[in-house]
Amino acid sequence: MKMKKTDIGVCLAMYAVCAFFLYMTLQLPKAAQIYPLCVIALLAGLTTLHVFNMIRAAISYGVESGLDDFKNFVPSQFFVLFAMILIYLAVMPYAGFYIASILFMGASLIFLRVKLWQIVLSEIVIIALVYCAFTLFLEVRLPAGIFFE
Amino acid sequence: MLETLSLMGNGFVSALYPVNILAMIAGVTIGIVIGCLPGLSAAMGVALLLPMTFSMEASTGMIMLGAIYCGAIFGGSISAILIHTPGTPASAATAIEGYQMTLKGQAGKALGTACIASFFGGLLSCISLYFFAPVLGKLAMKFGSPEYFWLSIFGLTIIAGVSSKSMVKGLMSGALGLLLSTIGMDPMQGVKRFMFGQSSLYEGINVTCALIGLFSMSQALILAEAKIKQRARATQFNDRMLLTKDELKNIAPTIGRSWIIGNLIGILPGAGASIACFMGYNTARQFSKHKELFGHGSYEGVAGSEAANNAVTGGSLIPMLTLGIPGESVTAVLMGGLIIQGLTPGPNLFVGETAKMTYTFFAGFVLIQFFMLGIGLLGCRGFANIARLSDAILIPSVTILCVVGSFAIHQNFVDVVIMLIFGVIGWLARKFGLNNAAIVLALILGPIGEKGLRRSLLLSGGDPRILFSTPVCWVLIALCVLGILSPVLMDKMAGKKIEEDE
């Protein structure tokens, strides 16, 4: 199997996680350091083993991009939807769960070009489901929003 | 013996309470809907609906989650048969023969076969659940701290098994999960570890939030990245769904073989319904008197695949319930369901008052199969239309359910943020060949292993020989070695299958 270029990023990310946790572990008292240090060593060791496997694969079979899993990736759609999720979570403490959810669902469905009647129906079904299951049945106090408290 | 029989009887009485019946009907229906929607998996469905079981009795909650699990495994066959798109990977083999039958105008018969085979596969798998689970549970009662340490190591070696592509990457995912499991209070020293000033991380990362993020939120992100396509319209069918006496007689041996295959695969950690369906299908073809029909619409093929994937369900619960070792992603999520109810998966589930809950769940699991048969046969036409639901509607719907589900755990916004972080981790893990199931297994097993190791060393005054002091320790060490070797054996089995196909 060829070496995937994307695996370089994976290994770098793992080493970064190890370095970050190592830095924080060294702030702990001595007795509490042992177990986290063992786990960090395990992750660093396995990552290094993967690096060796990658080098061996590159020498024996060559290198490929490893971007096959991204061939259907539509960046404009993904990042807009992801931004909408972040805005939805940011707005929720102020506007409350229900208003934020209605706005998020409406905006994302309009962006994905769903027909108007389907947008209305989907919103009604999801909001009714959440209200019945979480507000009525589980008695969860969902964020009401600072404007409405 | 008498005590066990009494527990079994009482389990059935409790399982027949109206609230449990309602949980079965709702769970099976939701499960089938999730299963028949391509892109949504059983693990994702169970994780998404986990918070709904918070306020329920432990047995009712587990029955509902079990019903979603069984329903989703069966539901995958509906879209596999009608639109040639398996709703879940567990129905991939069903699509081969099922869709050919649809093209021949036998969609009803294919769905009927899938329903009946799923029913018998699931029902027979309960036998092993009743027989093996209590025995294994009693054995696990003798475990001390060193044994628990090795048990968690055994669970972690399973990570190698659940890693489909690269064993090292699977182990890396596990090590990452272990590292994340160290967040929270140190169990022996009482020191705050990596809590970033958040008191809500005192007990560590909430496993339910992590489960919802890794399995459900990451799925919403996967759906969000690809161009939205209109799904094929499900084929309308008017033929009979019920099988004749002769047809039932023909598929009976196939169901029997697939049950054994599915059950063994279920018990084996690391293997799951997606492997079982192909093995069941292959065995059905080997033993069939009408091999020429395979590839052109054989109902024996549908029965072989569906009985095997549903037989996995009961088997896969055994290691999770008795040893606290989830062998695959769905059982890891179900284990999360038990933890939410304040129960510790393992031998304690078979003692005292908790045993009543366990046997009620077992009885519920038997009854779920009957509801699956009824709802499946009556509702196939309706479920077929649900399979067309666009990803565009699923993306915000799943996101909202993830948000509300994670918030409901402690009514705390930090949990929502943790869920989103794990959603992104899960999405990245899937894109770059890491393994979400391995991360979850390590998150669950990490604290068990840490406590086992540190308590053992405390008892022995730091002497590591305590970890090798009993025969059970050595059995568990042997199982660990087997766990590491299992992917190699699986690869060999898969290679053999490909050779046979060629």
Notable traits:
heterodimer; A: 149 residues; mainly alpha; 2 domains; two-stranded parallel sheet; 2 strands; 74% helix; B: 502 residues; two-stranded antiparallel ribbon; 18 helices; globular
Q: What is the element layout, followed by pairings?
A:
The complex is a heterodimer of chains A (149) and B (502).
Chain A: E1 3-4, H1 6-25, H2 30-61, E2 63-64, H3 75-95, H4 97-111, H5 116-137
Parallel strand pairs in A: 1-2
Helix pairs in contact in A: 1-2, 3-4, 4-5
Chain B: H1 2-15, H2 18-36, H3 42-49, H4 58-83, H5 92-103, H6 107-140, H7 145-162, H8 167-181, E1 184-185, E2 192-193, H9 207-225, H10 245-267, H11 273-287, H12 299-323, H13 329-340, H14 352-386, H15 391-410, H16 413-431, H17 436-459, H18 471-501
Antiparallel strand pairs in B: 1-2
Helix pairs in contact in B: 1-14, 2-4, 2-14, 3-4, 3-9, 3-13, 4-5, 4-6, 4-12, 4-13, 4-14, 5-6, 5-12, 6-10, 6-12, 6-14, 7-8, 7-17, 7-18, 8-17, 9-15, 9-16, 9-17, 10-11, 10-12, 11-12, 15-16
